[in-house]
Amino acid sequence: MNLELLWVLALLLTTVALFVANRPRMDVVALLVIVALPLSGVLDVSQALAGFSDANVILLAALFVIGDGLVRTGIAYRLGDWLVARAGNSETRLLLLLMLVVAGLGSVMSSTGVVAIFIPVVLSVANRLHLSPRRLMMPLSFAGLISGMLTLVATAPNVVVHSELVRHGQSGFGFFSFTPFGLVILVLGIGYMLIARRWLGPAQHDTPDHAARRTLRDLIRDYQLAGRERRLRLNPGSALIGRSLAELNLRQTQGLNVVAIERYRHFRRKLISPDATTELHEGDVLLVDLFAPGIGLLGFYQEAGLESLPLRGDYFLDQSHEVGMAEVILPPDSALLGKSLIAQEFRSRHDLSVIGLRRDHQALSDNLLEEKLRVGDTLLVIGTWKSIRLLQAQARNFLVLSLPAEIDEVAPAASQAPFALFSLAVMVVLMVSGLVPNVLAALIGCLLMGATRCIDMDSAYRSIHWQSLLLIVGMLPFALALDKTGGIALAVQGLVRLLGGAGPCAILAGLFAVTALIGLFISNTATAVLMAPVAIATAQQLGASPYPFAMIVALAASSAFMTPVSSPVNTLVLGPGQYRFGDFVRIGVPFTLLVMVVSALLVPWLLPLHP
């Protein structure tokens, strides 16, 4: 063992110790590594900085942008809505669905990209269900890693091992050769995380009462809005088609306040904030506040050709990505004092409807629009989030008390959602087909997102998690340093000598263990490149089929569960999950050992050692 290798190993151990201590920050440690390796003479400056030009780093940055585009267009939150709707209030069902969906998507596209996309989804769902993100982020990363075991193209190590088999004159693996093993490990992972989540902290997110923000549900309760919502569709032949809201005067004649209109054009749904001049079209769906419930409306519905549609949430909560509410108080010098909302033409001026009025902490329900406003009255307005933000600028007449927590989930480019899906589909097709390298496919997706206004340049730069990128860039030189100083070759030779006379299952378990350990320090792709020839050579020496030995290396290369730096997937969830280095060690090491045992038993059973 030469002095250079001893230095690299000492530096590696020091780096791991600093990661465990979490002081200084991990990205700072990574920068120190970049400085230390060339100063010691092990690598030159260009080799130490090679990570900045690594295609995987660019790919990761591009996928951050793609993920933010899905958030800005509301697609990510719609996935969260779907998960919440299917999971209900069950954390167990949520965890199960989350891991299944992520693993399924990751089997045909980059697992790093899938996890990057789902991070904001998981944070949103955790917030809505008052769950700690710590209990969901690690299952998310584990599902992303397991997805690499499901198909041939799911991760680069699978392709590397396949290519090595072909190079040795074998037919290689098929597209679904990995699927039986991946499905078993996925089921194992779901069961394990259902048990291990208790080690990640309490289920409920511990938020101080004074820091809690009011939600739309709180406003619905305080202003007694429950039961007042209606969704009415204009059927063909309706007497309302082609007439304006001012002409119909539904508020005065029927007690109906149209707060928004769903209109479909070219297979796209658009939500319209109506005013007095808005004309109604066939097929329009009116979101109506029924502030005069005493009026009989069944006869009017039939005469007007209106069809009552089922509701999908309390007082239009299902529309909260586009339609919001806010409380507004009137200051002493407001021009609205002493006047009614009708006299002020509030909706025509501000593109908002007033659906609630509280006076002396009591919600008023009668003659709301005719009520003359007083100092201290609190109005509840409903409309687009954009109109609500504009109201904040009119401080002389209005004072917006607070914006509900749901405004954090507003999609500023919701109308561009179809283009975001198209951009994502193009990226996935290019990745799956292999027409271009993955990094180019991701960059093409980013350019499409920008060209279709799903994301702007400022948002794109803000979406990139630079700390994660620096951490990865700083760890990449270790692969070259270990290889250059002979550390990898020494480990491989020792493995062959140590396991040469052991039984087949023990040899497979040993190959898995060594591959997983090497993968702690270098990329899983580089690990597969180094270990695949060793696995096939071992099979030839034993006179066995090379397929089970190649498969065990591929599975081990994807089993990067043990540290937050062993895979970009783990690095991504480190910050959002508020994890420390030791959290991954505590949860990941037992699961890796479990996967090793299952793989060592399952691989020779499904892929016989002797053909």
Summed up:
This protein is an alpha+beta fold and 611 residues long.
**Strand residue percentage:** 5-15%
Largest sheet: 5 strands, antiparallel
Tally of extended strands? 10
Give the integer mean of the pLDDT values: 80
Q: What is the count of DSSP helices, taking H or I runs of 4+ residues?
A: 27
Membrane topology: Multi-pass membrane protein
Protein name: SLC13 family permease
Keywords: Membrane, Repeat, Transmembrane, Transmembrane helix, Transport
Subcellular location: Membrane
Q: What this model shows, in words?
A:
It is a multi-pass membrane protein. Keywords: Membrane, Repeat, Transmembrane, Transmembrane helix, Transport. This protein has 27 helices and ten strands. It is elongated, with a radius of gyration of 30 Å. About 1% of the residues have low confidence. The protein has 611 residues and is α+β, with helices and mostly antiparallel strands. Strand 2 and strand 3 form a beta hairpin. The longest helix has 26 residues. The strands form two sheets. Strands 3-2-4-1-5 form a five-stranded antiparallel sheet. The protein folds into two domains: 336 residues, no CATH class; 190 residues, Alpha-Beta Plaits (2-Layer Sandwich).
Q: What is the topological layout?
A:
Layout: H1 3-21, H2 26-40, H3 45-48, H4 55-72, H5 75-87, H6 91-106, H7 111-128, H8 134-147, H9 156-167, H10 179-196, H11 216-222, E1 229-234, H12 245-248, H13 250-254, E2 256-265, E3 268-272, E4 285-290, H14 298-304, E5 306-309, E6 323-329, H15 341-344, H16 346-350, E7 353-359, E8 362-364, E9 378-384, H17 385-392, E10 399-402, H18 417-433, H19 438-451, H20 457-463, H21 466-484, H22 487-499, H23 504-518, H24 524-542, H25 546-557, H26 568-574, H27 581-606
Antiparallel strand pairs: 1-4, 1-5, 2-3, 2-4, 6-9, 6-10, 7-8, 7-9
Helix pairs in contact: 1-2, 2-21, 4-7, 4-19, 4-20, 5-6, 5-7, 6-7, 6-8, 6-10, 7-8, 7-26, 8-10, 8-26, 9-24, 9-25, 10-27, 18-19, 22-23, 23-24, 23-25, 23-27, 24-25, 25-27
